Amino acid sequence: MFRGVVVLTYIILSGCSESTETRVQRFLLRGNEEVQKGNGQLAIELYRAALNLDSCFADAWNNLGSVYYREENYEQALNSYDHALECRAGYTDAYLNRANTYFEIKQYYRALEDLDRVAEKKPDTTVLHFSRGLVYTQMRNFAKAVDSFLSALKKDPDNAEIMVNLGTIYYYQKSFDSARSRLNHALTINPREPNAYNTMALLETALGNYDEAMRQINKGLALKKNDPYLLNNRGYIQLLKGEMDKGLTDINESIVLDPYNAWAYRNKGIYYLRKGEAQNAIQMLTQALSMDLFIERLHFYLGEAYLASGEKTKACEQFRLAVEKQEMTQEEMRERCE
Fold first, then answer.
1. What is the DSSP letter of 279?
2. CB neighbours of residue 6 within 10 Å
3. Interval 194-200 mean pLDDT
4. Which residues, including other chains, have CB under 8 Å from residue 232's CB and lie 6 or more apart?
5. How confident is the model at residue 15 (pLDDT cuts 50, 70, 90)?
6. Of 159, 202, 226, 246, which has fewest CB within 10 angstroms of its CB?
7. How far, in Å, are 89, 259, 266 from residue 302 at the CA level?
């Protein structure tokens, strides 16, 4: 749901000598200025110019990686952070940045390894605990995610983003009262936090309060227009309300804005399932499964789609997985498979 923090290393120039060291630092500083202006390509050229003078200038490699990260060029970002760490052992900013990149490409164990390296030098910083919380959330290790976010809150108790993430974990755990409390606290800190409204909408949806869920999701969209996650979730709520065409419009727009959100493909699968188009539902749900194994109720819906298409063996295999993930009960599975 949320991205990690990218650190740019800044060097202050001193003296007036045009030594090689001064020149590489000048290129670094100019590159940093272009990053702040949003000129990523020019920043890359300036960092490369520094590296042409000093091929093992760790700060330039780190900052180059951060530009590639922001451009979602994760392969080049990893390569840059690798160089930074080769040139400077124990470089915590580069370890943190590489962990964020591993997070984006779903290499969660590698992300944790890099965060452990950060912990060796900075064991009690907010960003360390927050980043661990994000990784554990994606790994569905909710107990460790909660511990990490609580540790982050101890360091930064008025951080609304941490509070929202903690509330989201409680929502996943179906601890709805705790989730609501944390989300309301986040909105007290920052009433313009769209992700708090997003999770609050999902909470109300889970409770069957669809009108309230729509009110919450629309508050989020008023703050962050055309956000693909908010649009997708509004589409999902509309499907549950029976507003099928409105729901599909939002889900399709979400996919155009972010074609890598597996939840949107799941929701489009639900649309086809409810329209009686089982094969289209199977296609969408299978695509979602190939993108993310941890989507809620995905095995249940896929089982329903296979059942509707007459493929009972495949359906019951999905229902078995749904029972394992507590998406349905044994009794519900027996009703469909016996």
1. H
2. 19
3. 97
4. 250, 251, 254, 255, 261, 263, 264, 267
5. very low
6. 226
7. 48, 20, 9
